[in-house]
Every structure is written in structure tokens, then in C-alpha cells.
Amino acid sequence: MLEIIKQPWPWYVSGPLIGLMVPLLLLLGNKAFGISSSLRHVCAACFPANIPFFKYNWKQEVWNLFFVAGIAIGAFITWQWLFDYNSIHLNPKLLNELNSYGITDYKQVIPHEVVNWQGLFTLKGFVCIIGGGFLIGFGTRYAGGCTSGHAISGLSNLQWPSLVATISFMTGGFVVANFILPVILKI
Amino acid sequence: MENTVAYNTKETTRNATQATSTVVINLKFLLAGIFFGFLLIKSEVISWFRIQEMFRFQSFHMFGIIGSAIMVGMISIFLIKKFNLKTINGEPIAIAPKKFNKGMIYGGLLFGFGWAITGACPGPLFAQIGSGATVVMITLLSAIAGTWTYGRFREKLPH
Where do transmembrane segments lie in this chain (chain A) (predicted)? Predict the structure, then answer.
């Protein structure tokens, strides 16, 4: 059993299981699968600053904060004991491209040559860490959801606005990954 | 004086009981989150490199994950509606519809930019931190600042 869990999983095993999060949260308590709202709840709980958008009873939404805390715990356990990163096979074309930017270690979830604590004080690292993070938080709230809320929950419920949002996510990502990020990584 | 002390003790006990019940009620969501964190790692969705592959159309992996997740979600919601399933507490299941506004395009594009740069959407941010990439805590704080900034200037933005 443990061997089956530890070995790499093809997309057609992990993908459908991720999809099951939608009915799981509905059945557990009528909750819509969505992560980015947690960022709003943190603002409402810690820095409401009299802004109407953050004046609501965040305590009623506290399940979402338990959920994201769980994500970090689950990731910790899995990364330590239930996963072999060496098993990931990435496209050699991508690795060649990244080599030319000085990114040669693929054994972590992030390119640690750029994304690390010292990197915060370099232009490249600052853009990737602070800039990228800001865009995630600003963009998801502006769009009213992220990959889980729109692409998975919204599309599962046949919501056409979620399709518009998902196409926008993908378009934005396509443009930056192919045309902007290479320039940033060459700095 | 004695009354005040007694009252305070009672108040503290009540707060403690309330806090305990909040934790108990939400324990199932913590467990669901642990399961989701497990899946985010097993699916390799947390990898910056996988996201770069996806946006360069160099691998089917991520499209397979997202596509099959949507298919399963769709079938599940269809079945929930068809059989009028209830939550474990017996409440009828209600899903709020999404109302369109132009923010979904503008915000969606901006989020796409951030997704490509950080290689993470909000869920994977928490998972990356859990996997030991501690510097991602700064990315998360910046994302919270981004959400706050949106809230602050919401009325001035086109929707």
C-alpha cells in the first residue's frame, strides 16, 4: 500500500482525486472549493483598516483558514515521507532553456537559484517573489477566484463567467511565461 | 471584587469552550486540507517547473490534471443535483452561481502573470511552504498585500 502511495502518480490518478475535493467540501459542510478567499479572510481578520471590502464576519468563513493550514501540513508530510522528487520527468527542452538562465537544479519545488532569501535583495528575486506574489493576491481577488474557485469549482458547476476567468488566467500565464519571464530571468 | 474574579473566570471558560468548539467543528476541513496538500504534492502541481512546462505547451501533465479534475467535479455536481444529496449534517446543498464582471478578465490576466512568475496559484503557495520552501512565506505575504490593495482600491477599478 505504502509503495503505491510513494511511487509517482500519473495525471489520470491525481487529477480525478483533486476533482473529488469539490463534492467532498460540499458534502462536509456546503463549502465551495476555493483557496484565494483565505487571503481575503486574513486581511479581514488582521488588517481591516475600515475598508468596506474587509468588513464582514470572517469568523463565519474560518473553515477556509483551517483548510489552507491543512494544505501546508499535508504537503509537509507528503514531501518528507510519501514522495520521490527524482521521479519527475520534465521536458528536456524546458531544462535546456532554463540552463541558459543559470537554473540547473530541478530538485525543489521552486528554482532556488532565483527564489531564495538572499534573492529577495536582487532585482530578479524581488520581481519573482514580491512582484509575483502581489499579482497573485491582487489578480485572484479582482477576478473573484483562482484556479480552484473558477477553473475547477466554477467550471464543474457550468458557470460561464468562470470559463472567461480561466481563459484569462491561461492567456496571462502564456504571455508572461513565454515572453516576459525569460527577460526577467536573464537580468 | 470576588464577583468580578468569578465573572472573569466564567468568561474565560466560555471563551475557551467556544474556541474548542470552533476547532472541533472545523477539524474536518483541516483534514480535507491535509488530503488536498497531499494531492498537490503527488500531482506535482506545486512544481514551478511543471507550470513553466504547461504555459509552454511542453507537456500534457498539467492539462491532464486540470481537465480530469474538472470532469470529475462536473460529474459529482451533476449527481449531487440529480439525487438531491444533503450534507453530512442534513442540510440541502446549495452552490452560489458566479456573476460575470469585467474584473474576471482584468484580474484573471493579472493573476495569470503572477501564476507564471511564481509557478504557483494560491493553494500551491501553502503547499510549497509546507514542503520546506520557506521563502515562499514572503510570496504569500505579498499575495495578502495584493488582496488588501485590491480591497482598498476596489471602487476605483473597472468591473
Answer: 12-30, 62-82, 163-185
